[in-house]
Amino acid sequence: MKSNSEMELMSTHKIDISHCTSCEMCIIVCPSAILAAHSLGLGATAIGLIGPAINQSNPLRRLFRIPEWNEVVESMITGYPKFPFKRAIVRPRNKVTFIT
User: Fold this and answer.
1) Distance (Å, rounded) from C-alpha 71 to C-alpha 93?
2) pTM given for the model
């Protein structure tokens, strides 16, 4: 079992996370959670304005049952998309010359 201070990345690289605060850990984990949701066919995105709004509003803290000693750091919404994902606009690619 891995220690809490190490996280294995792509089975060969280890990242020391012992110096990270819980806020930093949330910021590290959120993009991975979004990718995981997308791999399950869910739409997902992070919304940066939700945390500060909840942290500064006692009615919102009560609504979401967030104790006063906790702080909202990241927020992520997920759900099944109402409309299917469409591919991005196809644009002409610039010619790239590789130097070997």
Assistant:
1) 45
2) 0.57
